[in-house]
Predict the structure.
Amino acid sequence: MFPEIFHLGPLHLRSFGVMLAVAFLVGSWIALGEARRRGLDESKLLNLVLVILVSSIAGARGMYVLTHLPEFAGRPLNAIALWEGGLTLYGGFALGTIAGFAYMWRAGLPLGTTADVLTPSVALGVGIARIGCFLNGCCFGVPGDSPWCVRFPAGSPPSAVFPGLPLEPSQLYNAAAAFGLFLLVLWLRPRMRAPGQLWWLFLALFMLVRIPIDGTRYYEPSAYVLNSPLGPVTDSNVIGAVIFVVSVVLFFLAGRAAKAEPVVRRDVA
């Protein structure tokens, strides 16, 4: 855990913010290169990246605040204190996707193709951001006995819940899953024939791999909504399941729409 890189008077450079900046810069570089290759308007794409960045952070923080309202009772300004940690990935995916498609439509960008262009950037960005979560000490795991479990320092949020215990590095599991999906979508990119399928496939797969990873993450008791034969279910699990189903449906609809497009025949002279 290394939440703060340095501070100079009132200026604090925090590792979480640095990792978000790195994710944004690297993701933008990859997306702009792909946009150039596909002939998309680079200025519009950069604006789209900014829209997705802001809306994703707002969605992730907003969902965390809504599911942890007692934590902010009497101190509403702390709802915007991102440096304290507290982001819900599903909220970021949901609002970022909605805002992103809304901007694409308004800017006249091809929806499916533009979403596919951004897919590798999103996958890589999530992985980098999750490393920021690990350095910040938020989104931590439950006690475990794996040889790679970590002990967080006294005074950190994980140690306040599990003092002195080795915890599963749930943040790094998420990062590894995102990096793996980044490599997968790079391999799948030329193999997806229908515009938009790469994005919806990535989203569905990420929601799917989150299921076992969520079992290693600590959630407050208020986050559990019901008990199932397979174990307790959190609000994040429910939202992730909804996103998974919607993504699978849209993946097949994108493929069907591509097959239904009329084939232009050219007469041979």
In short: The radius of gyration is 20 Å. The CA atoms of residues 61 and 82 lie 7 Å apart. The first strand starts at residue 4 and ends at 8. The chain has one domain: 4-258.
